[in-house]
Every structure is written in C-alpha cells, then in structure tokens.
Design brief:
This protein has five domains: 135 residues, Rossmann fold (3-Layer(aba) Sandwich); 106 residues; 175 residues, P-loop containing nucleotide triphosphate hydrolases (Rossmann fold); 180 residues, no CATH class; 275 residues, Alpha-Beta Complex (Lambda Exonuclease, Chain A). The protein has 35 helices and 24 strands. Strands 9-16-15-10-14-11 form a six-stranded parallel beta sheet, with helices on one face. Strands 1-8-7-4-6 form a five-stranded parallel beta sheet. It starts with a strand and ends in a 20-residue tail after the last helix.
Length: 970
C-alpha cells in the first residue's frame, strides 16, 4: 500500500505551509484544549537549517493560535534510519571516528597487490594523511552502496558486465578490506552502522517508535531509508510541495520521479535572468538587484543563493563596499576559523621547525594577541610593546641576514634584536610545550594526543570565557568546542585501532575531521543571508538572488569519479547526473512558485578567464526562447557592442572632468640630513622624492623572507671576503694564483658557516659556489696585477669626520660625507695611485655606464651624471691625509657572472670631468638643503620599492640590479 501524499500549495513557502498543516491537523496528534502535542510525530526535512526553520514556524503559528506546543522530533533523511531502526538495537554502533580508524587499520593490512590497484602510489607506513584519505574514500563508497542495499561485490560484477577493464580487481580489493573492517569492529564488540541497520531490517517485529512520520519536501530517499519506512507506511505521510496536477512527477514516497522531470521546461522568465562576465561582475549584479528593491524588502527578507561557493568572498567584499550587511549560512566552515588555522600552523612548525613556518605562526592574529601579553612577563612593558610592534620585521631582517632555514639549533648572531627574537621564540615554545615536549614520539597512539592539543588551545584562548559576546569571539569559541568534540571519540576509540603518530600527524588528523563542518553563526535580522543551492527551497525569504547559475553548480554534475563513473552509478541506482538534474529542475520550479521576486545570475567566465557554461535549467525552453537566451549568454563583451558599464554599486561614478583622488602623498615634516652617504647622490639624481622617502622619512622595504642572498647581500659577502684577503700583507703581495684562490675559497666557507650556520639553504650553497667561481677569476687578475708592481695600501677605508664636501660660497657650510672606499692601491714602480670599487653585477658595467648611462663621456660641460661615486672618492681620497697626490686612476674591479671575466675597468675622465662631477655633487647638496624633493616622472629602475606610493609600476627586469649596490654603507 502506498503511503499517503498531501499536496502543499507551492505558492507558499514549503515550511510555512508544513507548519500550518501540522498545527491544523485535528485528530492524529493530540491537538485539543488549547494544546498541540506533536511529540510523537517524526518530521523529516531536507537539512538541519530546514529543521530550525520548521520549529520556528511551528512556535510562531502556535503563538498566533494561542495554543501551547510540544514540538515534533525533527531529523534529516540521513538520521531517519537511526531513528527508525537503531533505537531498539542492543548492539553498540561505531561512531564516525571509530569507523574511520577501523577502515584505516583494515586497509593497512591489505597486501601490496591490493594496495596497488587502490592507490595511485605506494603509501608510506607513517603517512597518516594518505591512509586517512584512502579510508575516507572506502567509507564513502561503502556508505553510498549500503544505502542502496549493495556491496563492493555487486559493483565488481556490474563493472565486469560493462567491460570496465581492471575495475573488478579494485572492487574485490575493497571487498577484502571491508570484510577485515567488520572483523576489527566485531573484535571490539561494536558494529558498523549499515550492518546494524540491515540486521534491524530483518527484524519482522519492529515496533513503531512514533505515532506518525511526516516527510516534508523530501525529494530523494535511498533504498535503506525506504525499507525502514516500509513497515510504517500506514502512519507515514509525505507532504509534497507541488500542485496535485503534477502527481505523475513524484513517486509513491513523494520523491522526485527522475524520468518525469527530464523534459520539463524551465520556469524562468527572461526578466529574471542576468548574465555577467567575471565573479566581480556577478557580485555587482547582486548589489544592483538589491538596490533595485528600493527598500521594498527588509534585509531578513532577502536571500542570496550561492550556486558556486567560491563566490562567497567575492560577494561579501562587494557587499561591504556597497554597505550591505551579509552573512554566509553554512558556508563558513571550521577550516576558515582562527583555531583551525592556528593548529594547522602549529603542525607545520612542529614537523620541520622551518623558519618560514615559525613566521607564519607568529603572523596568526590570535598568536600575535597572546604574545602581546605573555612574550615579556614582568614589568618590562616598554620592551614588550616595542618588540611586539616590530617582531615580524625583526624576523624578516634576521632571516635576510642569516638565511637560517630551520630553527633547530642556536640562534645566529648577537645583539638586542636577537635577544628579543629569542624571547619571542621562548614564548612560543612555552605555548606549545604540551605538544613540543614529546613531538618526536612516533609511538604515541593517536587518541593520547587529545589532552595536549586541548591544553595548547586552552592556553591560547584562555580569555574567551570572559570575552564579550561578539561574532568573532563566538566563532572562535565554537570552533574550539568543535575540536574538543572531534577529539573525544578519537580518544575513546579502542587503542588497538589507533595508529601511532607524532604531534603534527595527530593535529592534522583532527583538523581533517572538522575542516568541512559548517560553523553556526548567530542570526541577525539586519543581515542578508547567503545560502547554498540545496538550502534555498526551505528558505522563506520573498526576495531571492541566485548567483553562479552555471552548469556544474546548478544542476550539480560530477564529470569524473575515480571509482563510480556516472554510467556505473546509473546502472546501480545510485545518485547520478540525471537524478541531480531532475532534483534541481523540481527545486527551481518550487522556488520560483513560492516567492514573488527571483533573479538568477549566470557568469560567462571564471576569475582566471576560463569560460563557463550556462545552466541547462536556463536553456530548457522552447526554440524561440532558446535562441533568445543563447544570444543573451553569449553576448560579445567587445567595447563597440557592449553598453557603457554602470557605476559600481555603493560608490558614485565620478564626473568626467573630476580630478582623480589618487594623488601622490606629500612628504611629512622632516629634518634636512646633516651628512650624506656617497651612494645618496645616485639615489637623489634618480628621483629626489624617492630619496626623501628612504633617506629622510626612513621608509625601507621589508619583504617576505627569501631562500637566498639578494644582490646587496651577495655583494656584501664578496666585499667581506676580499677585505680579509687585503688585510693579509703577505698574501696581498702574492703573485701565485693558487694561493690566492685557496684563501678566498676557504674564507667564503668560513664566513658562510659563521653567518648562516652549519646547514645553510641549498640555494645559498649554490650562491657560495658561484662566488668561489667568481673569486677564482679575481685570483687570476690579482696575481697579474701584483706582478705589475701594484700593492694594496688601504682596504675598506672608512671616510672620517675630515671627509667634507666644501663649497665656494662662505655662507654654505661643508657637507660631511660617509662611506667606504673599497680599495686604494699604489704602484711601487711608478708611484701611481689607483682607487677602485668592487662590483659583482652579472654584466660587469663600466664606470662610464654606471655614471653616465653611456660608453664614453662627453665634453665636461656636456656630461650628464647619474652617479658621482668614483669622482667623490677621488675628491675625498686626496684630502684624507693618506698621502695621495699626483696621478690617480679611478675604476671598477668587476667580478661578473662569466668567471673568466674578472678585470679592471678604468674611467677615462679628465680633471675637468672630475671638477664637473664635484660641482654636480654641490648642486645636489644645495637642493637637499633647500628641501627640493620633486618626483621624477621618468624614474626607471629594475625594482622600485616605492611604486605604490608613487603610483607607478615597473615590470622591466635588469640582470645587473646589484652592479651599483656595492657594500652597504654605515
């Protein structure tokens, strides 16, 4: 006998109509004398949120009728079997955690032949994540098949009938794992939930746990659920949200008849369809629809349907811009919460102790907040505040200096900044002490890590208990509770089922268990809610905007399944694309019929520009309408054909003649520097404004930690090694290439070890080898240079207080200059002096290229200077008291990428050129003292640290970016 079907008017929202039906039901549930007792009614709805909406409507309806209400028991189809079959079972049923662990253990016991057909690669014994993934796949397949009263052997037979090569072997391997899975559970006196359900189905004397069972808008039931209902058909009622005229489109249980919905026409009207290009355009379309309501609906009466969940952050961002408060219901998952991301960062840090993982941990806002209180205990509040404000900068600077890839040894270097970093590191160690103390114990059962994980969470979030009830705090607290609830069944599982793991694996295991669980957020009537597609049918908002109305999302379709392709699914009676299409076509009809305002928005392309296909539900129409809609969705985006874009909602479109608000900021108040570096002149000549930003305002770029030396650091290391060579009098006079090269190579090794530790990153080891190769070329040049009579007189000569740039005008005081002259040589045969600067640029630019941007200088008065380094060195060296006089040559000792190209490149300047350069330097000083820091609109650099401030972007690279960097000056 078929169950009773009641047809709900789909011009009303489903759950409002269902609630009224339950309250108006006069005879079956004790509704009398101002009292409505529905406690013996089992209501089945599509999802948990639908259950909450039903109960809300029941309470509201009871208040309107002035009756007291005892609500029904409300479940989803997934819990129907448990309520009808397992409530009387005396056998213990495995919870999800126990089931997962049993599957993992069973799969581990398979032989290599079976594992080869199940996994694409050989699984390592300690790769818990890989075993968990394989176990979850097996459990999913087992559950889906069991729901349809099938097992792995049935699938193997069907696959062989379809001549699917090798599939029989895979499914029989799963069958062997399944048998072992059941044995492991039985050994611990627990049973798989599906086996327990089948045992209950065989019980012919099942008692009805409820007086009535009401299915409300349930569109699909599997075979086990139907068998569970079968003995209670006489007390089961299906409330079908459709008119009686559509009876043939539903089966005896009130579920969607797959074949009957395949050829239905779409209920969408042209005026309810919008097409947008990219995700941002879809979000703007949503905002324009909301703006078009013009206050007709309150926020709680508007719902945004998210066909594609990836659109949630895009729509949220545009909504914030437009001043529309939105809330994603059931779309924000545990993986999006602070506690989840914190534990993920902890797992990464504990696993390898990489510096990058440590900085990622410190960048977590909850860790930052905790460290602000606990990093420097005691009364040292000033130090704590200063260190906290700068600790990420300190970390970046430390890594840039030492490139310490792993923090499993002593901190390198010394000084107050390193002491602060040690304090920060110690504070983090204290926070993670419950986990770190035993992090390398791989023989600890998985469940025994629960207390350590909870202790760390409790320490970090100890202030949540007394914190104000705001959404962010509530979300963190709920996320911690979800972790606690996920850990409890793992810890309670039989110890024999628990794999032995380290802390990182244990953390990742529990995070995987909750990652996709939605986080419940408080309801706020001032927010527009965003819901997933399958939740829209139960929603009652009269205004609905559905985004992502594209094939693959609505209707949902699975194009590839590693184990169950669509053809095999259809043959086995499992959910397939045809059933999903039928379900979604029905849902679209019911959604449009039950509310006055529905707009669907289809996208043409993803954010990356990949084309999207419009939903088949959009194109299921007569031929004339189909042609019209195809033209609409394929409309060219060419500017000549497209209408002018509308202004972004929430931001007025500026008038055509309005001056842009994007202006370069003015410099703050500053003091003119009382001294200059020699290298400052090049910076000022390139762009006075950028010079002021860096040299006067004090802005310095601080990027992400790199894995290798940058150009400046590479040059500094070369300078340090060459300085050590120059300070050895005997070696500096040597004419033996081998001796020089051996010393330089050993000095590179010593300094790398001293500065970067015993295990520098691989990239740094390559750079050290490259530097040795360059210095090998230098050894050849240096030996020949010494053979010509040249001797190193001074190396890394620091300019002192007597290094002044003098002016001819008496009212212009001299400007002190700072810097270091890399090397000053004198030829003991000729008496000639040589002032040189080391250059490690890849291409080996000449002094003329660096100082003029051309190969040869022009006449002195026509020469344009872009750098003044060597002329200033000549000027300062002569007045330094070093006895330099007479003929002085200026040049570069270049160590280019070509290791045989080390050579001396001399500048071909006359005395007039030098004097012209010094005059140019004086003009720079005069301009700086006058506060002239205009921006250079033609600034050209391979890397512009201030491109965003100056609102320019430079994309051209330059392989010689380090050529003029030289050694960092004090």
């Amino acid at each position: 006998m078929p169950l009773r079907r009641e047809w709900m008017d789909w011009k009303r929202p489903l759950l409002k109509a269902a609630a009224d039906w339950l309250l108006d039901w006069p005879t079956q549930a004790g509704c009398e004398d101002g009292r409505c007792d529905l406690s013996q009614v089992l209501g089945v709805v599509s999802g948990r949120r639908a259950g909450r909406i039903l109960l809300t409507n029941l309470l509201r309806g009871a208040q309107e009728r002035a009756i007291s209400l005892i609500p029904p028991v409300v479940v989803t189809p997934g819990l129907l079997v448990e309520r009808l079959l397992l409530h009387q079972s005396g056998e213990a049923v495995a919870n999800p955690a126990e089931s997962q662990l049993a599957w993992m253990a069973a799969l581990r016991e398979l032989d290599d032949r079976d594992l080869r057909v199940l996994a694409p690669r050989r699984l390592s014994a300690d790769d818990l994540g890989a075993w968990r993934t394989l176990a979850d796949t097996a459990a999913r397949l087992h559950s889906e098949l069991a729901g349809q009263q099938l097992n792995f052997e049935h699938v193997a037979e069907q696959a062989e009938r379809l001549e699917m090569t090798g599939e029989g072997d895979r499914w029989r391997a799963l069958r062997r794992a399944e048998l072992r899975y059941h044995q492991l559970l039985h050994k611990h006196s627990i049973s798989d939930v599906h086996r327990a359900a089948n045992e209950a189905l065989r019980n012919e004397k099942r008692e009805a746990p409820f007086e009535a069972i009401v299915l409300m808008g349930v569109v699909d039931l599997n075979a086990t659920q139907r068998l569970a209902l079968a003995p209670f058909i006489d007390r089961t009622i299906a409330l079908v949200h459709a008119p009686p005229s559509l009876t043939e489109r539903f089966d005896d249980f009130g579920c969607v008849n797959t074949d009957a919905w395949q050829d239905c026409e779409s209920p969408l009207r042209d005026d309810g369809i919008m097409v947008a290009e990219r995700p941002g355009d879809q979000a703007q379309a949503v905002m324009r629809v909301i703006a078009g309501y013009a206050g007709k609906y309150a926020p709680s009466q508007i719902t945004i349907g998210m066909g594609d969940p990836a659109l949630v952050p895009v729509v949220s961002g545009h909504a914030q811009w437009a001043g529309v408060a939105v809330r994603a219901v059931g779309i924000i998952t545990h993986g999006d919460t602070g506690p989840h991301r914190f534990l993920a960062a902890v797992a990464d840090w504990l696993e390898e102790r990489r510096f990058a993982d440590f900085t990622a941990l410190l960048r977590h806002p909850d860790v930052d907040r905790w460290l602000g209180v606990h990093c420097f205990p005691g009364d040292d509040l000033t130090r704590a505040s200063t260190a906290r404000a700068r600790w990420l900068t300190l970390l970046d600077d430390y890594f840039s200096e030492h490139l310490q890839e792993r923090l499993d040894g002593a901190w390198l270097g010394s000084g107050p900044q390193h002491d602060d970093l040690k304090h920060i590191h110690q504070a983090v160690s204290n926070l993670l002490q419950p986990l770190a103390a035993i992090k390398r114990q791989s023989d600890l059962p998985l469940g025994l890590w629960d207390s350590s994980i909870l202790k760390v969470l409790g320490t970090l979030y100890e202030d949540l208990e007394n914190a104000a009830e705001v959404p962010a705090v509530t979300r963190r607290r709920d996320a911690c509770f979800m972790l606690r609830d996920a850990l409890a069944p793992i810890a309670a599982a039989p110890i024999e089922l628990q794999p032995t793991v380290d802390a990182s694996s244990a953390i990742r295991h529990v995070l995987a268990a909750v990652a996709e669980e939605p986080v419940t957020e408080s309801i706020d009537p001032s927010h527009v809610e965003m819901l997933g597609w399958l939740e829209l049918h139960a929603d009652a908002a009269p205004a609905l905007i559905i985004t992502g109305f594209n094939e693959g999302f609505i209707p949902e379709s699975v194009s590839a399944d590693a184990f169950l392709p669509d053809s095999l699914r259809a043959m086995l009676g499992l959910p397939c694309n045809a059933r999903r299409y039928a379900r979604d076509m029905y849902l679209l009809h019911a959604i449009l019929a039950s509310r006055p305002d529905v707009t669907v928005i289809a996208g043409r392309a993803t954010a990356e520009g990949d084309p999207l296909t419009p939903s088949r539900l959009l194109l299921a129409c007569d031929d004339a309408t189909l042609v019209r809609r195809v033209r609409q969705v394929s409309h060219s985006s060419d500017a000549a054909e497209s209408p002018a874009p509308a202004p972004p909602t929430g931001l007025p479109w500026p008038p055509v003649d309005q001056v842009s608000s994007f202006v370069i900021p003015t410099l703050p108040g500053f003091e003119i520097p009382t001294s200059l570096r020699v290298t400052d002149f090049r910076s000022y000549l390139a762009c006075p404004f950028r010079f002021a930003l860096q040299r006067i305002v004090g802005l310095n770029p601080c990027g992400e930690a790199a894995a290798e030396l940058d150009a400046m650091q590479f040059g500094n290391l070369a300078h340090e090694v060459l300085q050590s060579f120059s300070e050895d009098p005997e070696l500096a006079r040597s004419e033996v290439v081998h001796d020089i090269d051996r010393f330089l190579a050993a000095e590179v090794e010593r300094r790398v070890k001293q500065r970067f530790g015993r295990r520098p990153p691989p990239a740094l080891q390559v750079q050290a080898a490259q530097l040795k190769a360059r210095l090998r070329g230098f050894s050849v040049w240096q030996a020949g240079h010494a053979a010509q009579g040249w001797r190193i007189m001074h190396c890394e000569h620091a300019l002192d207080d007597s290094s002044l740039l003098h002016f001819n005008e008496p009212n212009s005081p001299p400007m002190p200059l700072r810097g270091k002259i890399d090397r000053i040589d004198r030829n003991e045969r000729t008496g000639e002096w040589l002032v040189v600067d080391y250059k490690t640029g890849d291409t080996g630019r000449s002094p003329h290229q660096s100082h003029h941007g051309c190969e040869r200088p022009k006449e002195p008065l026509d020469t344009e200077w872009i750098d003044l380094q060597l002329p200033l060195y000549d000027y300062l060296a002569r007045q330094s008291g070093l006895g330099i006089a007479g003929m002085v040559s200026l040049g570069y000792v270049v160590l280019p990428k070509q290791t045989d190209g080390a050579t001396l490149l001399l500048a071909d300047w006359t005395t007039d050129h030098i004097n012209h350069a010094i005059d140019a330097a004086r003009e720079v000083v005069i301009s700086i003292r006058a506060g002239r820091f205009e921006i250079n609109p033609h600034f050209d650099s391979a890397f512009d640290s201030f491109s965003r401030i100056c609102q320019t972007e430079v994309f051209r690279g330059d392989d010689d970016a380090d050529a003029d960097a030289g050694q960092a000056e004090p």
